């Protein structure tokens, strides 16, 4: 019904790996269900990165926006959060607003060429200025939050209700959340705990998020059925329409048949010391559901002493594992991994006993998660990792570190029942080897809590897959949400034109 040739949509992602990839996946999904032209506008280096992540036949068009981070104190050639220390990431956030003028120039050109404004601008929650841009070009802005509903709602509410300080208790309630969802000060990243509206982080997040609340609607990378409570909280808090268009995952990750091809996403520029084949061969040598996969996302790592405790605990647990290791906090993430960060001869022992595989820097995550030997995922709970794990029915042991990860973990434990939390924070994480052994044991053993988590994860997996169902009478909820979203935009525009 929405196949009018000249319609187009413009997308503005924030410049971080975990945002660019879901934007690209959403662009593809919009194009697949509407045949509209979709433009993604971002900086040159990020366009380059996205281009190399898409098959050449993709219909998404990329627009390079000139960007000079140097004006905001960024080193040359830095255009996304990759390998940036926290102190510099805040500059990148502030610098992102400088994309507004080139974005307006691009829109002037494209509106002129096409003789009409885009049907909407889909922008990142951190690029709230897009609301005004959309208005001045005669269209609407839709915010796309790349996280889940519960986690995003918590993050938004935390920033808009500062400060969060110790009173008589470390627990507090959060506007928008029912009383049963108490939050804890340890769930706040240090900069959020220190924020009071005057610091550099608040001065970026507060205005941009507030502007995003004036959008026409929000899109969320989740599945309505798996996060019922979270979606309700989110809708009530925003008081805007929210369409759940997830899971934004590669098609191959959602089917049962293996094509023999790697299904992991975006390896561009990521070096690993092991091939996907060797990784999968190693998994083949293990029992079904016996392996713990450990990874902290694309840009996080843990402290050196935490790493040591984790290694000792893992060895004591005697569970097989694949661990993506990177230099600890305070060291160059791309630098060499020094043996002294692990117990003496740890890697050799694990290799000899065929107990553990250490992967340096980057692993084929989706291939590992979809392998039948993988039994649980020790994860930082970045939302892409969460969706990837659950789409394969793999329960989670959480170690949230930054952003909204602690709220994802909270939701996974309290609402979804697919997770147990091991600890929180990077260098500050309170972790002892004995607790690692005990939690991993509980999560991976056949009975009790571990079995219940696995059972729930299996249910969630089916719900995720059903959301993308195309055949049969009933379309999956993700595809239906996309249809409703587009129909609403068209109805709104027709109304405005009347
Ligand atoms: N990833 C991967 N191999 C790695 C580390 C990460 O393939 O060794 C991918 C992972 O599959 C996911 C993304 O990188 O798609 C990480 O996104 P997430 O939202 O989980 O965390 P972030 O990197 O944004 O903290």
Report on this structure.
The chain is α/β, with parallel strands linked by helices. Helix content is 42%, strand content 13%. The chain contains 18 helices and 15 strands. It has helices spanning 17-34, 44-53, 86-96, 100-114, 130-136, 149-160, 190-194, 200-212, 228-238, 276-284, 304-317, 346-352, 365-369, 383-391, 405-416, 433-444, 448-467, 477-497, and strands spanning 8-12, 37-43, 60-65, 120-124, 140-145, 171-172, 183-184, 217-220, 242-244, 291-295, 321-325, 356-360, 374-379, 396-398, 419-421. The strands form three sheets. Strands 3-2-1-4-5-8-9 form a seven-stranded parallel beta sheet, with helices on both faces. β1 (8-12), α1 and β2 form a beta-alpha-beta unit. It is globular. The two termini are 20 Å apart. The model is unreliable at 1-5 (pLDDT under 50). It binds uridine-5'-diphosphate (UDP). Uridine-5'-diphosphate binds at residues 17-18, 264-265, 295, 297-300, 324, 362-363, 365-366, 382-385, 388.
**Helix/sheet category:** alpha/beta
Largest sheet report = 7 strands, parallel
Distance between the termini: 20 Å
Total DSSP E strands: 15
